[in-house]
Every structure is written in C-alpha cells, then in structure tokens.
C-alpha cells in the first residue's frame, strides 16, 4: 500500500507501526529512566535557586542554612522514593495516586487527588517552560528579553506537536536527558577537582554582589518560618516522582521490580545533582535575591529593573566551565531541552489521567477511548490554554509560578501514602504467611512514615505559600473537583433514568407494527437505493414521502414515479412556506397519534462526500430533519448513504487518521492482556 | 397553549401569527411605498452632496452646472421608472432583474446580474450606514468623532435584529419614511417661502467658505469628464428602484398595477426631493469639497483635517430651519433612521436573492428553503461581515464608498432592460391582436431606450469611477460569479453521477438479503428499545454487537445478557487499544466481504438530550461511528433514539424557533398559491 509520496516520511520517522505492534515496544530501564525522569531531574535546574532566593530575604548570612535545607530535601526524597517503591509493587497495573486513593480512601479522596494532579500538570507546563526559557536566556539574551512571547511560543509548539500526534520514542527522551545528567555531573566533578585539587577560586558572575536583606537579623519563629519556606521551595525537586507509579505497565518484565529499581536510580540521581548544585553555588558565591532589582547591590548601588537574574545552574556553570564556553552553552541548551521535555510529559499525563477519570464517569465518556484524537485534542488544548494563561499572568517568571506549584503534588503524595497504609491494613487481615506479613508490616511502616512526612510538608507548604500564590492552585483544584462531581452526578442521574427494569425487560418498549417512510426529493440513485433497502426490511407498511417545496419539481417527480412504475405509494406533503422539516415532523406525529403502538421508521437517502465544503452544499436539510425526528418518540431514523466519488478523499483521510498515535502511549504501556475476553465469540 | 410568561411578549409584538396566516398580510400602496422606497428615497440624503463635491474640483464656478446635472438625473430616473413599470407588468411573479436577465439572455447574463446585485447589497449597507452616521453626526458630534466604531455598531445591531428575526411590519418602515419625506418637503416649501415670498437671505454654515479648485480653469474634454463624473455620483439617487420589481407578489390586487403606481410615486418623490435639495443648496450657498481639509478656505486659511464636512441635506436644513432647532434635529434623526432602514432592506434582499439563486443551484440548496433560520443566518453574517470590512477599510466615509457603488446597479439595470427588449421580441412573434401588439411595441421602445440610456450611464460610471474604487466592486462581482459557477458545476457533476438509469431502475442496487446488527454497550432502556425495534424489522439475520473496551464491563454485560435470556446472539469484538470505531468498521467490512450481495443494517441506540453541554457527555463515539459507517458501501445506519427527560428543553426550543419569521417576508409576499398541488394526496 506504500506509495512514492510516502517515502520521505518513511525515511524521516521510520516505518509506520501497525497499532497491534505498539504493545510490543516495552521499555528497558535504560530508556525508562529518561522517559519518566525528565520531570523530576529537570527540577534541579530551578529548585536549588529557589532555596537561595528565599534565604536571601534574611540576608547573605542565611545562605549558611542551605546545606541543612538540602539535607531535609534529600531525606524527603528518600522517603518518597521508598514509599512509591511500595506503590509500584502493590499496584503493578499502574494505578497511580488516583487509583490508590480512590480504592483505599473512597471516591472523594480519589477525586481530590485527581484535581490536584490536573492542576499540577498545568503548573508543570507553566513552570518548566518558564524555567527552560530562563536557562536558554542565560546563553541567548534575546530569549530572556522576550520571555512571555518565547514561553507562549514553546507552549504553542508543544501543543501542535502533541495534537499532530508525534510518535514518541524513548530515544527522543534519552538523548537530552542523558546529556543533561552527564553535563551536571561533569560540572560537579570538574568543580570539585578545580576547587579541591587545583585550589582554584571559582567565582559566579554574581559573586561580588551584596544582598540587602528584606528583614535584618531575623530570629526565632520568623527565622524558622523562613527556613520552612525555603524548604518548601526546595521540594519542587520532588515533582514528577509519582510518574513511574502510573507507568509500570510500560516496563519490561519483571515490571514492578524494574520500575522500583528505576525509581531508586532516579531518586539517587536527583538528590546528588540537587546537593551538588547547592554546594557548588555556595563554593562559587552565587548571589540570588527574591527581588533582584532592589535587593542585589553591585558596587553599592541596586542593580535595577534591567538586571536579569540567571538561574543558579547557569551561574554555577559559568563559574566552573567559564561563561560562554562550549560546555556552558551545551549545558544551558540541554537544561532548556530537558525542561521542555518535562513540560511535554504533562501533555501526556493530562489526557491519560483524563481517560482514567472518564472511565469512572467523572469526565466525558469519550475521553476513555485511547487514541481518540478528538478527545485528546480537547484535553491538550485545555492544558495548553490554562498553562499559557498562567505564563502570561505571571510574566513567565518561574519563581512566582513555583509558589503555586507543589501544593498539588503533596496533596496527592499524602493521600496516596495514607491510602497505601489502608491497603496494607486490609491485606494484613487476610494474610497468614508470617514472612509475607513481615514484609507487609515493613511496607506499611514505610508508607506510614511517608504519609506522615509528606503530610507535614503539605502543611508547611500551605502555611508558607498560601498567600504567595498557593491559593490559586487550591482554587483550580476546587474548580476541577466541582466540575467532575457535576459530571458524575449527571451520568448517575441518566443511568438511573435509563436503567432497565428487571422483570419482562423489553416487553413494555416493544411496538406492535412498524410503518416505513422513505423520504424522496428527486428520483436518483440515492433515492432508489433507499427505496430498495427499505423494501428489504419488510415493514408492515411502506410509503414514499415528498414535500412539495416547488410545485414544478413535485409534478415532475410524480410523473417520473408513475412512468417508472415504482410500486411504492408516493405521498405528497404540502409546504406553503417551502419548509421541509415541519411538514414531515407533523406528518410523522399524526401517524403516531393514529396508532400509538406502531413504530415509524424513516429512511433518509444521504450523499456521502469527501470535503468539508461539499458538506455545505449537501444534506443540510436531511441532517436537520434527522435531528428533529430524533426528538419525536417512537421513531427510528435510517440513513441510507450513497457514496459519491469524492467520498474517497474522506476515506483516505480517515485511514491516515487511524495511524495517528496518541501522545503518552510509550509511558503508559500496552493494555493488559491478562483479563481479556477471547475475540469474536458469540454468546447465545 | 399560551402561557403566562408569554403575556408580555404578546403585548409587545402582538399575537403570534400562524404561518398560514402570513400569506394574508398583503401590502397596500400606502404601506408598500415606505417598505420599498426607503432605499431610493434615502439616497437623496447623500446624492446631491456628491454632485457638488465632484464639481468643486473645478472650483466654485462649476457649481453652476449642478442644475443641469440634476436635470440629467431626473431624465434618467424617469427612464428607469418607466422601464421598470414594464418589468412589473411583464413579470407579476416578482422576477426581478436576475430572472429577467436569466430568462431572456441566458444563464451567464443572469449570473452577472446576480453577482452585481449581491455586491450592491453589501454596498447599500456600507454606504447607507456611513451616510446615516454622518447625518446623525451633524446633530450629535460624538457620533462623527467615532465614525467607524458607530457605523460598525449599527451594522452589528442590524445584524442581531435580523438574526433574531424581527417581525417586520409596514408601520416600522412607514413612520420614519413619511417623517423624512414630510420633513424634506417642509424644508423645500419653507425655504422657497422664505427665499421668494419673504426675501430672506438664508446662509448655509459653509456659505462664507471659499473653494480652492484642484484644477483651475478646467475646459474641453477635462470639463466634460468632470461633469460626467458628477453625473455618475448623482446617479446614486437611483439605487433601489429595482426593489419593487422583486416585490410584486407582496402587493394587494391588482398587483402589477399597484406596483407600477407605487413605482411612479416613488420616482416622483425622489426626483422632487433631489432637485429641491440641489436648488436649496445653490440658494443657501452650500460649499463642499472633495478634500475639505485642504480645499475649503475659511478666512483665507484651509480648514484643516479637524474639519467635519456635514452632509448637504443637514447644511440646507441648518440654513432653512436654523442650526440646532427642533425641526433640524428631527430631520437629521429621520434622515439617519431612513438610511438605516435602507441598509436593513439589503439584509432582506440578500438572503432572498440567495434563495432564488439556490433554486437554480448557484448557491447551496438549503438557502432555498424559506424561513430556514440557519441559511438566513449565514447569508446575513456574510453580508454584515463584508459591509463592516468595507466600512472599516474606508473609514466609514460615504464619499469614498460611493465610488464603489452604482456600478452594480447599472450592470443589472442595463442587462435587465436588454432582457426586456428580447422578451417583447419573443412575444411579438406569437401575438396577433393588433391592440396588444401596439402595446408591446410601445413597451419595447421604452425598454430599448432604458437599455440604451442605462448602458450609456454604465459606461460613464465605469470610465469615470474605475480608478476611484469601482474596480473593487468589479472584483467583488468576479468573486461572486466564480464561486457561484463553481457551485453550479459541482451540483451538475453530482447530479450526473447520481442520475438514475432509465431501464430497470432499482434492480442493480438491490441487495438480496439484509443482516442487522444492534450496537450494545450496556443493557439499559435505550439498548432494549433498539433491540426491540431491530426485531420488528424482520432482517434475515440479527445479532447484537459489543466492543470489549473494558473486560470487566464486557463480562458483566455478557452475564446480564444471559440472565435476562435475550434471544439475540451477542458478538464480542476485541479492542486492545480501547477503540470503538475501528473494530466495528472492520467487522462490518468483513461481513460485506463474506457476502457482498447482503446489505448490513446497523442499529445505534442514541440518547436524545436537551442541552449543548450534555451533547459533550453523550453519543460522541456513536456519532463518530455513524459518520465512519456511512463511508462503508452497502451499509445503512439506523438511529434508535431514546428521549431523556432533559430533551424536553430542546423540543421547546425547537418549537420556539418555528415561530421565527425570516426577514424580508413582508417585502416578498406569500408564495404563489396558483400552481399548488392538492395536499396529502397519494400517487399509487
């Protein structure tokens, strides 16, 4: 079937995979790590900076607390990774936080987690792209001068890519992620070597600046509060850790074990990079301030509003590699790219979560169907629109956007871990094997500690960030929660309305006879086909119906009808105002009034055309009539299509559309084959 | 059926007319005059000014030519009115220029006229509203300071009114038109009385200005050309004369005679007002210039770009009644209102012409149906969009817009009159009665002179205005012509494709057997109804089909199927990627491959809901499946609707929509009852 025109495409993106084959592309750990970890790893590009930024409020002396805060983040990271390793083993189907909370804590907790995650996906896009732009800007000043426009352009680009359905490949993720990780480790190693072995003095571009503290000599409660706020900001490094727990089915076997190993690997890499950057920042005297324009002092004068505060990672790279060197530029580019990839993961995650929520009827049913392009498109456009709005409102300032972040993450961390504790409790009741019980008790202890710790962090984050912007995220969660509850309520009420009664199920809706009507406007092949099909159906009565819109046309039709000797009676309805719909509807209603127990079957000949503009030229009145007939009880409406030659074009488009791959397919893995029904079996 | 909530509406717009009654509201001459004449009469508000404006190019002395130009316009007006009186008698069905040209000169001439008229409708809106704003601005300066915004606002207002379907009433037209006509005549009479009897010196606000001629001492060919250009502009007074010839069926009997009388009345009124205003303008020394900012001199200095040149009618009114007096304001308001009404006539005429063109398959068929709200809406939005674009491009400057105008009018005048000559020639061949022959020869002479004169004017208009903007109008005509030709070609090719062969008409499309498939997702009332209806139809084979999207759901369905003992086999299709459409399509195709002579009938249970947001929650996959199935040959698709309680809301909306009245109904008159088929008759 391949044509010559397809050749360049084949060369570019490889042979088109048949969708049955998709299931066989499982991820090795080597590829799974970059696929899932671009989000958490990329956050080391901004999280260390945020810590210094908050500490600067109390002046330069407060920077000494940063190793302690880094330590707290490391401990938290280990806790979360350890906890999620339990999730991965307990829910190998890739349940994720929503399923864990839903199953163990009930639908309200589940819906809360889902709302939190949806908000978080939006923020992942906004924060990652803003931060990526800032990192790119440290190498290309133009970008940072047109921050909002560039950020929105990247959002638009990612959106178009995802709407078109880019074929995801592990390699696409692997290269920039590994370049980034290697770059950061190289930087840490080279920095350590220069500092410790060579004894060089490395100076960040801002090393000679002074910081004017917002609050001089902070102490006691205020200092603790500030430290907690710095810690909250550092927790941005933990976002995205839960992604692996959604993606277990995408791993090669043994799935759970491989996923757990990847999780541990990712945690290890993230904390090492996080700590390394913090320590290099201390060693090279990076200076960052929350309000750089007024609080950063160069030669005794504030730097003013034109000063652009580069991210900590690029300042460190400038100190270690030298500003503008090859390695500096490569690292800046890789950082930006990994951050954009992290944003892309949200483009995958958002519709995937939507599909799970649709299954539970919290979102429109059609989102459930995987690979349903239309459904994905709506989700993607919604995500992109919300993220672009935030980027625009917050001027693509990652520091201000991060204030909104993390709330959602820790809501879902906490509820998921509480759910896991319940999970183990339930299983412990039935389990007798002492070895397994021991194992479960150990898991429960880990999850309980995780729940306690992440819950504590959630309280800290809410307390320290609520007025700084976390309320916006909470508002977003409330909106999602409300909408999804309303949708579920609608589905439930419809389900109750249409539920079939138990006894004598189909008796009371069964009409006794059926009367068929074929709508005729002119005598051509589509009409003749509709007549032929209607005759096949052996209705109790059959007649053709035409509306007298134009007397001359009607007369000609009647004459041809007789001349051809068509053995179906032709009924002519009057329409003094050249309407089609109303006379037909009224005629059908009158038939129903005459014999209420008869069903009426209306056959409508339809042209099938290939181009949107042809739709404007055909079928409009048939479509409107069909729409109105559906409101008339006791009527069924049959379209008898007649495929015009041009419909071939549409058929080809549809075939092409089938080859489209939904974004996120690689991360999600194939559908479980385990509990599948044998295909094509008849049940008597 | 009337409800309490309807009471205020009833009081406001009167009892809702049943549409059968609409036919009985025929127009008396007293009402017909304002209904049809607001367009031509309103043009006296700007046409005299345009004449002076063009003459000013040669300096103040050229103003002395204005009576001669007025005379030429009067002669032309009498010619055109006399010619159209022949049309009205020859085509009492309200053919209009399109029908006359189409019937007598062939489809290409007809289509040219139609394109010209369509462009003219757009320009009527643009010119009338711009001029209306300028007249209003002479009383309310704010309006003229925000000319474009106000003009677009009026367009939007008219569009919304026409989209909602305002009930047209003769009175709505009559009051402002008669106030305007009375006001102008009062002004002429009072001006004559003051000037001749009292001997007052009346001075227009611009009387003391001097005019700097663009071309000093123009003579010979250049002067003739300028005079012809002034005449062309004056011809704007003739636009809209043809409207009555479209609207003959709306008149009371004797239709043709009444229409001809109204036409004469209108012509008389228009020329009297036109000449009266020109003479008053001369008497009160009105000064107008094409480029007022530089060419109008006040106290030796150009007035500059801030100067607003008021329309001639308001300058004359200021001189006769006094600036800002009650009568001055009333006349300004009535002038603006009549101009807006003139624009409104285009809102009626555009879709009406569209409906006639649709009948001849130059435009989408559905435009043909009268009172089809959707079709009207498209036409109205297209008209309004084009007019708003022109208003915006030309800064709502009526003088610049008038350069585009008139070309279309005279194209249709000329072709229509040539067509009439052919019409009489054809009838003269068969006519023997000498009295009738004499009458016909007289009519032919009038039409021939009309054709010659309007053709001459067309050449003059084209020659003098082409570079001034007439090329834009011609471009518009070419675009309309091209589009309509393409549409017609498409319809013709489809008609050829689907034309039924003469011998053994329905044999070759007739399948031998039919196989019915009921799509099932869950077992609820809609599914049971679809099953019951499908059973009624006695297909050769019947089976239920479900797609295994979720194994648990499928298992539950199968169990319930067996428990209820439904005696239809249930086939389960596998769908590893949770698609619904593809497996069904492929299954249907496989059935067709197995037995190509069988037809497949697919029953789809559908929910009928009442609100747009509910559509988002239901039926999406069914709709898409239906769309795809129609592309598969040999398949018919039956929707078995299940009306949810909420569908009642939609039914109510539909009922309300039926009461909508298409704009233009009053002008068009009822559909001819003459050649109507008796209702509800069966042809064996």
UniProtKB/TrEMBL annotation, chains A, B:
InterPro entries: AA/rel_permease1, APC_K+_Transporter. The keyword Signal does not apply. The keyword Coiled coil does not apply. Keywords: Membrane, Transmembrane, Transmembrane helix. Residues 647-684 are annotated as: Disordered. Residues 669-684 have a biased composition (Basic and acidic residues). It comes from the Bacteria. Its main location: membrane. It is a multi-pass membrane protein. Pfam families: AA_permease_2. It is found in: Membrane. The chain crosses the membrane at residues 65-84, 111-133, 139-160, 172-193, 218-241, 262-283, 326-353, 374-395, 401-424, 445-463, 469-487. PANTHER family: POTASSIUM TRANSPORTER KIMA. This is APC family permease. The lineage of its organism: Bacteria, Bacillati, Actinomycetota, Actinomycetes, Kitasatosporales.
